[in-house]
Amino acid sequence: MTLALAGCSGDKKKEAASAEGDKKINIVTTIAQIAEPISIIGGEYVQVESLMGPGVDPHLYKATQGDIKKLEGSDIVLYSGLNLEGNMTEAFENISKKKTVSAISESISEDQLLNDENGAIDPHVWFDIELWKTALEEATATLKEYAPDHADDFEKNKKDYFVKLDELLEESKSKLAEIPKEKRVLVTAHDAFGYFGRAYDIDVVGLQGLSTEDEIGISDIDDTIEIIMEHKVPSVFVESSVNQNSIKAVIEGAKKKGLDIQLGGELYSDAMGNEGTEEGTYIGMYRYNVKTIYEALQGVEE
């Protein structure tokens, strides 16, 4: 969903884009899951910056004065939406009066989205590759509209990138299908892997709710331990952008009841890895998570 193209008609945008000549389109995104793929799709015509780096929690993030300057200095602002970056809503509304601002995940049809027991939409759509392709289609459409002279290049880059995403999806399906049904329980720090679980037929238990702003109570920990005991879950996972204390409490609680569960590793959920590393790319981050989950739940080392 493009939040606004206010004050800048299509003709004006085309004139602005052609007047820029060879100047790159300055794109600012919230999360790296948008920034890295769109830098590939935009190619030589774009300069992309993500406000939120490794280990940063978008649920809690508040825009700094420096962020506001970056947003104001951009040509296009892309964010995920669905209340992922809830503390930045006002900033997006203000910037949208002057800039092209698009909440790319809000282009996904409602019937494909997950909701929690309170009706809140799960914003972690990048864990379903097909849904994330829809969001990236929206981002690409925004690029094409801003710079129509380069639309063919954007489309080609997008198609080439989507081929790699399709390969990643098939690879992930094949790998995770090897996990026995009784071991298909993924316990994580917060409820970020619902779309992942739906895509690969894995039951997901998030100790915390959809947002890391949700409180964790003793009952949440106890209920999680009961699920672990019932299914004899071998491993639980921490997340790179979420405090590890609650998961450690689950591990200790299970041990007191006689079940020695292991820490299966650290998963990337709301943030990707360091720039310049494999996990700093969307495909690399996704592949890392699949491998980590597979090895921990299968109980094998590769």
Describe the protein's architecture and organization.
- With 302 residues, the protein is α/β, with parallel strands linked by helices.
- The protein has 2 domains: 2-169, Nitrogenase molybdenum iron protein domain (Rossmann fold), CATH 3.40.50.1980; 174-298, 3-Layer(aba) Sandwich (Rossmann fold).
- 43% of the residues lie in helices and 15% in strands.
- It has helices at 10-19, 32-42, 65-72, 89-95, 129-146, 151-176, 194-200, 218-231, 245-256, 282-298; strands spanning 2-4, 25-29, 46-50, 76-79, 100-103, 185-190, 203-208, 235-239, 262-267.
- Strands 1-5-4-2-3 form a 5-stranded mixed β-sheet, with helices on both faces. Strands 6-7 form a two-stranded parallel sheet. It has a two-stranded parallel sheet with strand order 8-9.
- The model is unreliable at 2-20 (pLDDT under 50).
